[in-house]
Write a structure and sequence with these properties.
Length: 285
């Protein structure tokens, strides 16, 4: 599949649920669909990230979680059955597992494939150095394993997630997965030792009691000050030292690039070039 160039008009079939068969679809400019502006920007970021990073030689592909990732899978499906028949897709949780199955893609797991060619995932926020907060959907343990397993780890998001410092727009705090029997002690340590005074157990919305992750664990959301979040690696390391913590939703120095769909139909790309992050804009009218 040819890569889009800066300024190129991207055209694509009108989106439909990936599992829904249909006649040959008309080609419509990406930004002229019936999706809301936010959904359009998510889709734009996802499509360009797939076009730029998922090549025919990539056979083991990690699929992240969240509301942007369905567009990643949609674009992968558009690469065609011939390319996808020899590929294996590794999910980061229940949602992406269902997505892979319903898209008729081959499902695998990271214990069979501990080395992944490319993982593409969403993010709750991404900072200037490509550090990010993940775990707004409680999937960050598996997501981090798949990010580490990947030769290339790519983030996709809409423009609201593109920030200077983590914790700017995503305010619930750092998601922390903890083993259930240790949650009260971890909370106490967060409040009194690490100074996250409002850290709280994440409660379920349509169930009495706490959110339970795909791994059977609880989630704590722990806010930290702007000053502390300017050094997310240090925050992550201190949380990770607390006994009972399984994983922290701060991904530091892991992503090679992040794609943000903008409201004007362009995509902002931040990518590592050596040890520097460079930024460019791709226009997809
Ligand atoms: O646990 C959830 C994941 O880290 C998601 O990738 C993250 O919350 C972003 O999701 P969305 O694309 O829906 O904003």
């Amino acid at each position: 599949m040819p890569l889009p160039h800066v300024g190129e008009v991207l055209t694509t079939p009108v989106p439909r649920p990936v599992s829904m068969p249909g006649p040959t679809e008309p080609t419509t400019p990406l930004t002229m669909s019936k999706l809301s502006p936010i959904e359009q920007s998510k889709r734009l970021a996802a499509y360009i990230a797939v076009d730029k990073h998922i090549f025919p030689e990539h056979k083991i592909i990690g699929i992240g979680s969240g509301s942007t990732v369905p567009y990643v899978v949609e674009r992968i499906v558009q690469q065609g059955k011939e390319l996808n028949k020899d590929r294996v897709f590794i999910p980061t949780g229940f949602q992406s597992k269902e997505l892979i199955i319903s898209s008729n893609l081959n499902l695998g797991d990271v214990d069979q494939f501990p080395t992944i060619d490319v993982t593409i995932d969403g993010a709750d926020e991404v900072d200037l150095e490509l550090n990010c907060i993940k775990g707004g959907g409680a999937c960050h343990l598996r997501e981090k394993v798949l990010a580490e397993a990947a030769k290339t780890f790519i983030l996709v998001a809409d423009y609201r997630k593109n920030v200077e410092y983590l914790g700017t727009a995503f305010t619930p705090g750092v998601p922390i997965e903890v083993v259930p029997f240790a949650y009260a002690k971890v909370l106490q340590n967060l409040h009194h030792v690490l100074g996250s005074r409002t850290a709280a157990l994440r409660m379920a919305k349509a169930k009495a009691g706490p959110v339970v992750s795909d791994n059977g664990n609880f989630i704590i959301d722990a806010p930290f000050s702007r000053e502390e979040m300017m050094n997310p690696y240090s925050v992550m390391a201190r949380i990770k030292m607390l006994t009972g913590v399984v994983e922290v939703g701060l991904f530091c120095h892991m992503a090679q690039a992040a794609y943000f769909g903008n409201q004007d139909g362009s995509v902002t790309v931040k990518r590592m070039e050596g040890s520097q992050v460079v930024e460019e804009h791709i226009t997809a009218p």
